[in-house]
Amino acid sequence: MNVKLVWNFSGEGSLKTAEHHLIHLKQYCEKEEVEVVKFGTELVNKFSAISYIIVSQSLVTELRENLKPNQGFLVN
Mind listing the domains of the chain with CATH numbers? Predict the structure, then answer.
């Protein structure tokens, strides 16, 4: 089972902020050799966007402590 870890951003520049945050997530995962299923950003609405990573459930505890995501969801 995989988990989608999500970081929320608000405001007019939320998508650009989410895209920039994703750069740092990728850098962290590369440095720490975290096996990521998928990276991404999504525009939720005009003033809200997210960045996310999808990882194995076994990595969630460590990543929650180190990266402080706002939410997490089980995904297939």
Answer: 2-75 (3.30.70)
